[in-house]
Write a structure and sequence with these properties.
Elements lengths: L8 E6 L3 E6 L8 E6 L2 E4 L19 E2 L7 E2 L2 H21 L7 H15 L24 H18 L8 H14 L1 E4 L5 E6 L1 H4 L2 E2 L5 E6 L2 E6 L10 E2 L8 H12 L6 H5 L3 H4 L12 H21 E9 L2 E7 L3 H15 L8 H16 L3 H18 L5 H16 L3 H18 L5 H13 L1
Length: 451
C-alpha cells in the first residue's frame, strides 16, 4: 500500500527543531487538521469490562473472551478484529493467571513487534513518518531510564518469550526508548486514562507551550484540531506536557522526558509565570526569593509523594462521573496530606498559585473516591476559574473540570448550576473534539434528561 501524505499538511525540516509538520492550507479554529489511526494500541487493564478491547467503546453488557475471560468486546466482530493482537496475551494470561502483570508499555511494545513482522508496507498511521523513524535519544538516556528499559526488556522476555519471536536486546532496548519518547496516552472526556498507543504522524509534530492544535481521541484513533488560526506555511505545534506549570517546571519536564529545551514565545517571555506563582500580598514582609524557592521544592516533593501513594484501579460512578483511583495509603491519610500541604503552602501562596491548585485537584480526587461529593465540589469550585486563566483557551483540562463540576452538581440535584457548567464544557469540547463527537452527544443527552 502506498501512502500519499495528508491533505493540508506536509513534513518539513523545522529550523532548530528537526523534522516537523507544517500547513499547506488555511485552518480555522475547530477545523480537523488530520486524523490518525493508531499503529498499535492497548487498553489499560483497569478499564477491562468497562471498555471494548478493540474499539474502546464504553458500554455495559460487554462479552468476555471465552478463553482468558479477561478481555471484553462489544460483539463478535470486535473480538475477531482484536484477535491478531489479543491472541498474544490470551495464552500468556491463561498460563500466568494472577501472576500475569507486564506493564502497559511492555504490552504495547509486544504488540508493535507482532505488527512489524506482518506489516511490511507503510500504514495509514505513517503517511508522514514511519514508526521506524522514531527518535530514541539513546545517547541521552540517564542511568535511571536505562534501568527502566532493562526492567521492561526483562519483563517482555519473562511474559512473552513462549509466544513471541523477540528481537535482540539492542533492538528491543531502542524500541522501548522510541515508545517512551513518542507514545501517547489515550484519555476520555474527563482525562481518565484508557490506554496507550503510538500514532507516528501525530508524533511528528513538534512541541510548543502555546500550541495551535490539540490532540483528542475518538475510539482508538487520534484527531488533531486547530485551536488557533493556521495559515499556509506555518508550523503545526502540539503540546507534549501539562501546561499548568510555570516555565521552569515545563522546561525541566521537557528536558527530562523529551531531551530538548523549548524556545516558544511563552517560554521566552514567561508571560504567565507571575500569575501562576502569585504570592500573598498581605505578609508582614515580602518573602525572600530563597523562601519562595524552598516552598516550591516542598510543593514538588509533596506532589511526588502523593503520586507514589496512589494509582489507578477502581471506578466509582456518580451521574456519569467516573473516578478511577486506588490508594496504597488510606484515603483519609492522603486527604490529610493534601490539607496540611495546602495549609503550609497557603502561608505564602495564594489559592490561584498552581501548586495550590495541584494539591486541591488531588484533594478533589480523594474526596470523589471517598464519595464526599460536597468536599469534591468545594475544591472543584476553587479550581475551575484559575484553570481557565492559566491554561490556553481551548484546554481539555478546563473542559474536564467543568464536566466534573457539572456532573457533581447534577448528582447533588443542583441542576441549574450543573447545566451551566456542562455547557461551558461543551463550548470547549466543540472545538477540541468537534461538534459531532460522541462525548459531546453524551453530555447533551445528560443535560436534556435533567430539563
Amino acid at each position: 500500500m502506498k501512502c500519499e501524505g495528508i491533505e493540508g499538511c506536509e513534513r518539513f525540516l523545522s529550523p532548530g527543531k528537526g523534522r516537523g509538520v507544517r500547513a499547506t492550507k488555511h485552518f480555522e479554529v475547530g477545523d480537523l487538521v488530520f486524523a490518525c489511526p493508531a499503529y498499535c494500541y492497548v487498553l489499560t487493564v483497569n478499564e477491562r469490562g468497562a471498555h471494548c478491547e478493540f474499539c474502546f467503546t464504553r458500554r455495559e453488557g460487554l462479552s468476555k473472551c471465552g478463553k482468558c475471560k479477561q478481555a471484553y468486546y462489544c460483539n463478535v466482530e470486535c473480538q475477531k478484529g482484536d484477535w491478531s493482537m489479543h491472541k498474544l496475551e490470551c495464552s500468556a494470561m491463561c498460563s500466568y493467571g494472577e501472576n500475569w502483570c507486564p506493564s502497559e508499555t511492555v504490552r504495547l511494545v509486544a504488540r508493535i513487534i507482532v505488527k512489524q513482522k506482518v506489516q511490511t508496507e507503510p500504514t495509514q498511521s505513517e503517511r508522514l513518518l514511519s514508526l521506524k523513524e522514531f527518535e530514541s535519544h539513546m545517547d541521552k538516556i540517564d542511568n535511571e531510564k536505562n534501568e527502566m528499559n532493562q526492567t521492561d526488556t526483562a519483563a517482555l522476555h519473562h511474559f512473552y518469550s513462549k509466544y513471541l519471536d523477540i528481537p535482540s536486546n539492542d533492538v528491543l532496548t531502542e524500541l522501548f526508548a522510541q515508545v517512551n519518547c513518542n507514545g501517547f496516552t489515550i484519555e476520555d472526556e474527563e482525562l481518565s486514562h484508557l490506554g496507550s498507543a503510538v500514532f507516528p504522524d501525530v508524533a511528528l509534530m513538534n512541541h510548543s507551550c502555546s500550541p495551535n492544535v490539540i490532540v483528542t481521541y475518538k475510539g482508538t484513533g487520534a484527531e488533531v484540531r486547530a485551536v488557533q488560526k493556521i495559515s499556509p506555511g506555518e508550523e503545526i505545534f502540539n503540546s507534549y506536557i501539562d501546561l499548568l506549570y510555570p516555565t521552569e517546571d515545563r522546561m525541566e519536564r521537557l528536558k527530562d522526558s523529551y531531551f530538548f529545551t523549548c524556545d516558544c514565545t511563552e517560554c521566552t517571555t514567561k508571560s504567565k509565570d507571575k500569575a501562576k506563582m502569585e504570592i500573598r500580598q498581605k505578609l508582614s514582609a515580602p518573602p525572600e526569593p530563597e523562601e519562595v524557592q524552598k516552598m516550591v521544592v516542598y510543593a514538588r516533593n509533596v506532589i511526588e509523594e502523593f503520586r507514589r501513594a496512589k494509582h489507578y484501579k477502581n471506578i466509582l460512578p456518580i451521574h456519569f462521573l467516573f473516578v478511577v483511583l486506588d490508594f496504597t495509603a488510606p484515603p483519609s491519610e492522603l486527604l490529610e496530606i493534601c490539607e496540611l500541604s495546602l495549609e503550609k503552602m497557603g502561608s505564602l501562596f495564594v489559592e490561584t498559585n498552581v501548586y495550590m491548585l495541584h494539591m486541591m485537584y488531588q484533594a478533589m480526587g480523594v474526596c470523589l473516591y471517598m464519595q464526599d461529593w460536597d468536599g469534591a465540589l468545594k475544591y472543584g469550585e476553587k479550581i475551575v476559574h484559575p484553570y481557565s486563566v492559566h491554561y490556553p483557551q481551548y484546554s481539555l483540562n478546563v473542559a474536564s473540570m467543568y464536566l466534573k463540576l457539572g456532573r457533581l452538581y447534577m448528582g447533588l440535584e443542583k441542576k441549574t448550576q450543573g447545566v451551566k457548567a456542562l455547557q461551558k464544557a461543551i463550548d470547549i469540547m466543540n472545538i477540541a473534539f468537534g461538534k459531532e463527537h460522541h462525548y459531546v452527544a453524551e453530555i447533551k443527552k445528560e443535560m436534556d434528561e435533567c430539563e
